[in-house]
Amino acid sequence: MTAYVALLRGVNVGGITVKSAELAELFRGLGFAGVRTVLASGNVVFETDSADESDAGALKPRIENALRERFGYDAWIVLVTRERLIGIIADFPFDAEQEGWHPYVLFGSDSAHLAELAAAAPDLDPADESIRAGDGVLYWHLRIAVGSTSSPFAKLTAKPRFKATTTNRNLRTLRKLV
């Protein structure tokens, strides 16, 4: 069995409401085992043993299509294996426990978009926020007082061209997912 984590973008914000029980039901209906949702922000942990579905590239569009059909919104997910998520958490390059700061990981399914976002790093004020590239992710350390929707990097990631390929999570949420 391969354990995966599906990170849904834009769930339970902006008028898109997806109840955790219904989300879990959808994943079970797709034939996945060990399904559980974590928090109400679009996090699903599941397992699959189907040989043809062991590749995240095949699973991603199948799940996105099912979400679109069931919940009626433009669904986008980033899909990672549990094993890979453990490595991403371990590689967090900043002090995740620093008081007054939020530790985030920005996941991406398009390497060109992640590279474009990473190019913003030199322009950020390190007294407020920093980003560092990882393996298929950007690590983001943000001073709480700046705000996760109003910082320069947050505004950049909110641009429509990144909507379908990126989503971010707090490191504490990721630990709960593991």
Characterise the protein shown here.
The chain is α+β, with helices and mostly antiparallel strands. It folds into two domains: 2-84, SP0830-like domains (Alpha-Beta Plaits), CATH 3.30.70; 91-177, 2-Layer Sandwich (Alpha-Beta Plaits), CATH 3.30.70.1260. Helix content is 31%, strand content 27%. The chain has helices at residues 20-29, 56-71, 82-90, 111-118, 152-157, 171-177; strands at residues 2-8, 33-37, 43-48, 77-81, 101-108, 129-133, 137-143, 166-170. A four-stranded antiparallel sheet has the order 2-3-1-4. The chain has a four-stranded antiparallel sheet with strand order 6-7-5-8. α3 (82-90) packs antiparallel against α6. The mean pLDDT is 90. Pfam families: DUF1697. It comes from Gryllotalpicola reticulitermitis. This is DUF1697 domain-containing protein. InterPro entries: DUF1697 (IPR012545).
